[in-house]
Amino acid sequence: xxxxxxxxxxxxxxxxxxxxxxxxxxxxxxxxxxxxxxxxxxxxxxxxxxxxxxxxxxxxxxxxxxxxxxxxxxxxxxxxxxxxxxxxxxxxxxxxxxxxxxxxxxxxxxxxxxxxxxxxxxxxxxxxxxxxxxxxxxxxxxxxxxxxxxxxxxxxxxxxxxxxxxxxxxxxxxxxxxxxxxxxxxxxxxxxxxxxxxxxxxxxxxxxxxxxxxxxxxxxxxxxxxxxxxxxxxxxxxxxxxxxxxxxxxxxxxxxxxxxxxxxxxxxxxxxxxxxxxxxxxxxxxxxxxxxxxxxxxxxxxxxxxxxxxxxxxxxxxxxxxxxxxxxxxxxxxxxxxxxxxxxxxxxxxxxx
Amino acid sequence: xxxxxxxxxxxxxxxxxxxxxxxxxxxxxxxxxxxxxxxxxxxxxxxxxxxxxxxxxxxxxxxxxxxxxxxxxxxxxxxxxxxxxxxxxxxxxxxxxxxxxxxxxxxxxxxxxxxxxxxxxxxxxxxxxxxxxxxxxxxxxxxxxxxxxxxxxxxxxxxxxxxxxxxxxxxxxxxxxxxxxxxxxxxxxxxxxxxxxxxxxxxxxxxxxxxxxxxxxxxxxxxxxxxxxxxxxxxxxxxxxxxxxxxxxxxxxxxxxxxxxxxxxxxxxxxxxxxxxxxxxxxxxxxxxxxxxxxxxxxxxxxxxxxxxxxxxxxxxxxxxxxxxxxxxxxxxxxxxxxxxxxxxxxxxxxxx
Lengths: 353, 353
Prior knowledge:
Chains A, B: Homodimer. Probably interacts with PlsY. The first copy, chain A, is an alpha/beta fold.
């Protein structure tokens, strides 16, 4: 059994997509159980509409819903202890659920997660990790939104957490890890990135194959299983890739529909276009993971549909089933055994400056 | 007449693409003149092969060539005063040429440009600006590689320089400008970006329409004419977009060639695919501009061909013809008249902290 605690109010469309998604996920994973949190009057009708989901779910009424435009501080003030988002996180904290999942306000979810679950021992700051479709399959990219201007030690933490996530999700034993950097020689990129790279190289960890710096175009190429960066550049990379994909899809649609020959070609090749659409479908990489907390927290896109939401449930399912938290602790243990406890790393960082 | 001083040795293929590019550019712009710098034995045969280019060019032999893998400090040590790269920049400094152009080592070109031409009065650090194809046409994106961790004042300088470049190149009178930021509410992005936004809003410049923050996916959408960011995130955004475009092109090729129906569809729609290829052709946005120097310096991709190199020449031509440097000085003047001299901005920046 994998138990998922769900903030049923989160997202642009709330319980309608949440329940539809749970229904789809159940078909694939019959050993799922759900704990749903939300406003009874809103959620109940959808719960009744999905009897299969209802049969494996508990429902808890919560008066407060965090709004998509609440500031994190607002959300914490009004929603702590009693909002559907908080209650889902709390279920994980109490050990009643394996995973908390919300399609709600990202900033609020990050703030509440930190407050409710706290960061793991040995981890200073959480990171938001995304699954990124590549030419080779999928890679883990982090941080895409939690910790801006991460320092060298935090980047190393991210490398280990991302490595653990890749082991839990991508079926690789010793994931390859690269630090995102820029290739302009004069700069050699950020100092924090250089220092983190030096330490990762020296630490030579059992569960993590550090291969060096990678550049922006290596992400889509799938050069490494895990791409590590701080949140500002990571979020901009993610959004830029989404924008570029939409832009090319739009150019392609225009080009194919402008002429009769284009339309005939489209008719013949519609199977190929369907295949391409599936490859580029943002729903199939929905479900970012907030790493570094005492519990598994998944963030779904607010605007996704049932298929996308089911994918976020699947990410949570795999993380729980494959022991994400145990794997992160293993990696932290390796790092410490390698003589790279935080205080030693601090000395290396100082010397490198 | 527009006079372009060319480092004929720069790039992965040196003078062969340089001369081919010059020949293509001349057809479109018969009022071009070239000053070529390079090793005589290498350049001369190509010059003889393009009599049209030879007729409007001078050639100066330079013993030293900056290598693609030279560190900027190395390049400066061995190449100052006498390398083909330096001599091209020096031609601009002496007023003998309007534009310096190189497809060589980016770090070396930035270091030599700063050393040879110095930054403009009122500009602290240079920025590398790229032309970015969008759904609406083209936008200027800067900084994509020169100044990492730019502070608020430097971001404001970049906004003005990017605005001037858009006016010179994109035929807009009051370009819209956005600061690249991330939308995660908890953070509201980088502090430097917030402060720069506040000042740009208050300054309300004549030649620049500041519209606020934009995110990564706004770049391809063409939401603004000018996207401003510091060099780390900017370079990663640029490379990530290039990688995503290559990735999608590869998926598309695979999908169309896998089945007979796909191949038939491709046959009919090959006109549409040609159109798409042209839209995505990286050669047509080749030619980044190093802004903020006392002179126009263009960097061509090292791996481009004649068509791409001709485009870099065209960028330089337009910049000179449309008075880029004058326009930057106008914008700096506006900014100072608006009461936002650097020392006043410093106070605002302090207060905002």
